Amino acid sequence: MAAPLTLLLIVGVSIRLFLFRSSLADIIAERVEVVSPLTAWKRVIEGLALLDLGVSPYSGDIFHETPLIIYLFHFVVDYAEITFMLADVITAVALYLAVKDYNTQVLKKQRFELEADRYPMDCLELVRSPTQMYYIPLKVAMVYMLNPFTILSCVAKSTCGLNNAVLGLFFLCTIKKNTMLSAIFLALATYQSIYPITLCAPAMLYIMQRLYIPVNYRWASFWWFVVQYLFIYLGSLFVIICLSFFLLGSWDYIPSVYGFILSVPDLTPNIGLFWYFFAEMFEHFRLFFLCVFQINVFFYTIPLSIKLKEHPVFLMFMQLAVMSIFKSYPTVGDIALYLSLLPLWSHLHRFLRNIFLVTCVLIACSALFPVLWHLWIYSGSANSNFYYAITLLFNVAQILLVSDYFYAFLRREHHLTYGLYLKKKDGSEATLVLK
Amino acid sequence: MGLLSDPNRRRALITLLTRLNAPICVVCYMAGVAWFMGLAFEPFTLRTYMSENAMGSTMVEERFPAGERALATGREFAAHKRKAGGMPVDWLVKTLQARGLEVFTQRFSRTLPFPDENKERYMVKGTNVYGILRAPRAPRTEALVLSAPCSPGENNNQAVGLLLGLAQYFRNQIYWAKDIIFLVNEHDLIGMQAWLEGYHHTNTTGMDWSPLQGRGGSIQAALSLELSSDVVTSLDLVLEGLNGQLPNLDLANLFYAFCQKIGVLCTIQGKLQRNDWDSVSGYSHAVQTMMLMVMKQASGRPWGDHGLFLRYHIEAASIKGINSFRQYKTDTTTIGRLLEGMYRKLNNLLERLHQSYFFYLMPSLSHFVSIGYYMPAFGLLAAILFMRALDLWVQLTAPPLPPEEGAAHVKQSSPGVLSVLTPLVISHVTGAALYALPIHFQQVAVEHFPVSETEAVVLTAIAVYTAGLALPHNTHRYKTLHGWRVLKLVAVLYLAVLLGCTALINFSLGFILALTLVPIAAFVTPHVPKVLSAFVLVFLSPACTLLFSVFFFQELQEVPVSFQEGWMLFLSVISQGILDHSLYGSLVYPLISLLVYPCWLLFWNILFWN
Q: For this UniProt entry, which segments traverse the membrane (chain B) (predicted)?
């Protein structure tokens, strides 16, 4: 399987190289769908220039990336293109390895269940076979590497690619049940954009599952593991934050990065839900609605963790999707990360209900973004409502997609417990209705 | 959400949609066409009204007295033009300076990719002359433009004369709050392009021009004047700009309001408006007017010198004087007063024109159809595509398979992607060839065949287009049961997105393409009779659509042509399309060649799927 993966990486890198060399790169780097005020390369350059002049890069209102990123590019700014391509390659390989390992686990678990006769007889068609799953890791890597969203994000040199690489490594370490590295990478991801803090829950759940620690608060080993994980996580977060402080010599970056993410002062249009809403809002409601909007990202962790505590990887996928939909400055790069995990759930296809509609809407919206932007900004004939309508539709489609997968997942689990062909009490065929 | 989550209701809905698919599609198509035709019916349209407060309620008084003197200046200009054998730059500079304006010139040159046979030009060199009247009442941050093209021959001398007359008159007034720029541009659109690029410091088309020495503020509105006779019977308003962009409707309203006030006959598309909307002839007149607008907008070319302003977010229109055999004549003083009134109202603007509509169709000058009314017509056509896609999707995901085809099912999934990708790539490469080859191969063609450059370009385009039909598209070796369905699903969705985007930018083009391409997309399968369907497919292909549009347009303009002349016109329209793309950046030619034509090829491919 190494050969196809290598081929895939070469194809992906050549497409990116070609685009870097073409005149399209400049146009892509300006697209609001691809870069956000947080991740724009232009702003990183500005920060670097300020740093070189001996001024704090956060002194203007331009730069909002973290200090580690700016010190990283302080050294590799001449190799920026290679860095971003490398980040994509790392993510793809990490996802590939992680999914491969995860699939082995799934098959092993399934074999135990089969041997223990836990599945009802008519569910054998739901059982997954190794041949079906053979190509899934490659598909995941392919969807990430060749997804137009990822390619655009990389060509625009959006730092989102680096965040994705960190998240990919975190995913890999978690699947490989490496508590230490998992917590460290999670701390790094959190340091980059706050929101990955919600991934704590799935990571802990998964590693506990693999280490045969029961998820039960009456067990001491459960608490011991949680304390251990949180200690490494918070400890490394603390170290990274202090390191940033010592690098810069000031706490400037805390309000400028995290304050910027949480209080959403920049209302440049993007594919998220914040900008239009907060541009329209009366100032004295702002704080309230800010809390309402931000809580979306964090709040779903609790019910989802309770519902999906047996399936932490699916929980992680849900969390990634929720983050990329509800975060304050989303870009297409964030979407690409969770889209690349979709092949992992290809066995759910028979239970998906709206996939056709959702796919159509997502494709149409992606095409309409630049058109409506052109009509609004360049011709001046349309206005922001047109663009926001598409943003809204795009996000609704994403939410439908995620909830559809959620439903399909739960339904498959239900069938695995109660049998595929459900009967009503009177013996007629029953249907499942979600209400 | 009940509909989306309740499986029983979903199933019922999907069964209904798949079983009644064909009738629903036919009904949608009919309804779409009927809706579109209904747009010209007066009770369904809105009356135009002035939305901009700054131009609506304020009163202005028009006092321009010097029409006769303007005509005399025009005659003087004509004499100097004849003597100079082109634009009399020195005389214009002197005259504008004598009127107390700041005068500047701009030189430009441009070599066309191939000779333009309609206007007989290849290497174009020219000079623009413009004078700026500085606003006495405000800090010169905004400007208005009045332009008149200096055309070869005896055309348009009166327009330049009137422009100079207005410059002299405006100079003596004290109420101007915006700079007024009087521009005489040579070589019509090319000169205008050079001037606008110079004014805005952009260079999008690779033209050579000298930088502008003087500038006014940001331009708020512009009018282009075309006047070739001393008296006119009516004034015609031209709105259609580059890529089908239209100026804010308030500009048209302003023109209409002043024509009503001063009592000048005004037309749009050269058609007077009629009051007998309830009679058949009245309705067909409105349809004719609207169809002319649709055809012009769909062509994506600028239909007057104003057309290039729109790209810079400047509201602009052309006003053409028409002298026909009607008894009632309007003299130049009246036209001057009309322009004065319009400029005084534009002078009152506090912000850019934005209150009124940007997306509209006009069945007459006093009525319009806004985007909310005409989009459903397109939506009904696009719904057909969605229905067909849904139908295909249901067929593709339907689990029961006929037993004799079960064997093919095993191999279905892996070649699926490849069998779709190959035709997609091949048809797009053909499209790219259609886009790039005509201009690059003209030299070769001219050396080997007895044709002129322009003919070479057009004939190469047609040759590539035809050759695309003969290309082998399928490289798949084994039969797949669903192969063509997957391809058709992709093609139908592709067409839907493509037409949707086109219709948003240029409704007319999107609608015309939808009218012809949607039926193809709906009916093509490998199982329909080949010869007949191939004929229908070619008949409805983009090139034939263009050919019919040429005849239809001539018919609408009431100058029907024979087939021979129509064919020549068709050829010249193709060359104009390519020229418009390389000179002004019109998007119609790349859109057709790079996207629409490949999409059509996909359907052609489905027909011959074996």
A: 20-41, 371-396, 416-437, 491-524, 531-553, 587-609
Beta strand B265-268 with B208-209 is unpaired
Q: Looking at the complex, does the CB of residue A364 fall below 8 Å from at least one CB of chain B?
A: yes
Can you count the helices (H) and strands (E) in chain B? Answer: 23, 12
**Residue, of B118 and A85, whose pLDDT is higher:** A85
Cα separation, A401 vs B478, whole angstroms: 34
pLDDT for residue A201 is more than 60: yes
Do residues A329 and A272 touch, judged by C-beta distance below 8 A?
yes
Full set of structural domains in chain B with CATH: 53-363 (3.40.630.10), 417-608 (no CATH)
Please tell me which residue of chain A has the smallest CA distance to B358.
A381
Nearest to B313 among A363, A380, A434 (CB): A380
User: Could you give the ipTM of this predicted complex?
Assistant: 0.85
Taken as a whole, chain A contains a residue count of: 435
B344 token code pair: 């005084």
If you write DSSP's letter for every residue of A252-305 in order, what string do you get? Answer: THIIIIIIHHHH-------SSSHHHHHHHS-GGGHHHHHHHHHHHHHHTHHHHH
Instruction: Kindly report, residue by residue over A148-195, the tens digit of the pLDDT.
Output: 999 999 999 999 999 999 999 999 999 998 899 999 999 999 999 899
Q: Which of B592, B606, B588, B591 is nearest to B424 (CA)?
A: B606
End-to-end CA distance of chain B: 42
Is the separation of the CB atoms in A256 and A63 below 8 Å?
A: yes
Question: For chain A, what percent of residues have pLDDT higher than 70?
Answer: 97
This prediction's pTM: 0.89
Contact B192, B305 (CB under 8 A): yes
- Name which of A367, A372, A431 is nearest B7 (Cβ-Cβ): A431
